[in-house]
Amino acid sequence: MTRAALDESERGQTTVRARDSMPLHGLQRDWDDLAELDPLWSILADPDKRYGKWDLAQFFATGDAEIEEVLKKARQLGHPARWDRALDFGCGVGRLTRAMAAHFAWCYGVDISPRMVDLARSWNQGVRGCEFIVNDRAHLRLFADGHIDFVYTRIVLQHMSKRRHIESYVAEFVRVLRSDGLLVFELPSFIPLRHRVQGRRRLYAALRRLGCPPALLYRTLGLTPIGMTYVPESEMVNWIATRKGRLLSIDRSPSREWVTSTYYVTK
Predict the structure, then answer these.
(1) Helices and strands of the chain, counted as H and E runs
(2) With contact defined as beta carbons under 8 Å apart, do 115 and 148 qualify?
(3) What is the pLDDT along the chain (267 residues), one digit of tens a residue?
């Protein structure tokens, strides 16, 4: 049980919709598959690193560089005011959690996949101030209101198959954030129509339901269960406002076709 756990009476006061309290079994199964097949590539999908070609030290070094850059902007924005507790949502094997631990007294890494969390615990045993937790619900009721100084999630929310789950998590990020804290999250704000069909993911899901082994689907047929969802920036800005978040800044990273937005939010 995490030190941030709530009793049932407190949990009942959250604003997350009841329909989002059910476990996300399909998403959990997909990421458990990926944790077995190719955990590092599934987190950082460099085409040259597929099929186990990531060097573990090099992989973790990317997390150090990413967190240094994000916290540089955080200091410019003047948030968070305190550096006690941080949350890495969708932590995978702990790439960013361990990097955040150099800056915060305690860091929670939360992931939907028990297999990913097992790897995170194994590969980060010597890292001070990290706690890895499995959470298979579309809420974060294991954390009290205003418990976290810094919430960070990148290349995670886009893999939710339903926008309502993204909306639920954004609401939860704001809820658990301290009044002087900082939430930073990334999400595509535009995906071209031809990329929205996601035929390879659908084929993976169909064959997986028929009992095909994940290794055959991934290694032989080249399929993955990784899905992509986007939310238009105007819609996300409205979501943030209705959840009592205060938008500080937006960074946009357009590629030739996609647009990805990173939101910096406080209360």
Answers:
(1) 10, 7
(2) no
(3) 454 444 333 433 333 343 455 568 899 999 999 999 999 999 999 999 999 999 999 999 999 999 999 999 999 999 999 999 999 999 999 999 999 999 999 999 999 999 999 999 999 999 999 999 999 999 999 999 999 999 999 999 999 988 999 999 999 999 999 999 999 999 999 998 888 889 899 999 999 999 999 999 999 999 999 999 999 999 999 999 999 999 999 999 877 678 999 999 999
Token couple for 151: 């919430």
Token duo for residue 22: 């059910």
The CA-based diameter of the chain, rounded to the nearest angstrom, is 52
Ordered domains of the chain (ranges, CATH): 8-191+228-266 (3.40.50.150)
Q: How far apart are CA 61 and CA 74, in angstroms?
A: 20
Place of tokens 């573990």: 56
Asked if residue 229 lies in contact with residue 161, where contact means CB atoms within 8 angstroms, the answer is yes
Cα angle, residue 110 at apex, residues 107 and 113 outer, rounded to 5° = 145
